[in-house]
Amino acid sequence: MNIVNKDSKNTFTRMCIGEAIIKLLKDTDFDKIRITSVAKCAGVSRITFYKYYESIHDALCDYLNIIIIEYLEECAKNPENGSFLDYSHILFALEFFNRYKDYFLTLSRCGLHSILINSINNFMSEHFTNPKNYSEYRLYCYSGGLLNTFLKWEENGCDCDAGEIARTLEELYS
Fold first, then answer.
1. Which residue segments constitute the domains of the chain, with CATH numbers given?
2. Quick one: which of 78, 116, 101 has its CA closest to 162?
3. Is 7 exposed, middle or buried (0-12, 13-18, 19+ CB in 10 A)?
4. Carries keyword Transmembrane helix (predicted)?
5. Are 42 and 19 spatial neighbours (Cβ–Cβ below 8 Å)?
6. SS3 of 161, please?
7. DSSP alpha helices (H): ranges in 43-161?
């Protein structure tokens, strides 16, 4: 088996685990979810779960990291989106993360915002260690503001056009 297929299979398995946790969170408090339930819902063994994770929290963090990696890959394929503060990039981000709204809204509803904000902060520190054109605080303000705005937009049932939100955020950060 070549490495690409192995990585794809691993990613698929990890995503199944993450999606199973999200499904379980709709009916069960986070603290009451057990690895056995996650494994059964994901269609994997407990051994497979423990191959990747030590805890359910770790699995949720990893699921967001998988989403962020996919986001970065799509960003790289679409250089026309420009700088992350540009309208086109903000619009792209809103539309991309909308695909995973169930994940974001479920974590928000369950009070697990720390997973979201910590993952975004880790992303910012890993990918923007020496920002050339932006202060570190501006980057964190942007990413936290985008997350909070995205969550509110989703909670409101996407009550306005993503382009309208992108224009508002671009004006705010320009």
1. 3-173 (1.10.357.10)
2. 101
3. exposed
4. no
5. yes
6. coil
7. 46-52, 56-77, 87-98, 101-109, 113-127, 136-155
Each residue's pLDDT tens digit, 95-145 = 999 999 999 999 999 999 999 999 888 887 787 666 566 677 888 888 899
pLDDT of residue 115: 94
Structure token digits, residue 115: 């997973």
Nearest alpha carbon to residue 52 among 113, 116, 9, 1: 9
Q: pTM to 2 decimals? A: 0.87
CA-CA distance, 140 to 153, in Å (whole number)? 20
Q: What is the DSSP letter of 156?
A: T
CB 59 within 8 A of CB 114: no
pLDDT at 6 over 60: no
Q: Which amino acid is at 83?
A: S
> Among 99, 106, 108, which residue's Cα sits nearest to residue 71?
99
Q: Is 166 exposed, middle or buried (0-12, 13-18, 19+ CB in 10 A)?
A: buried
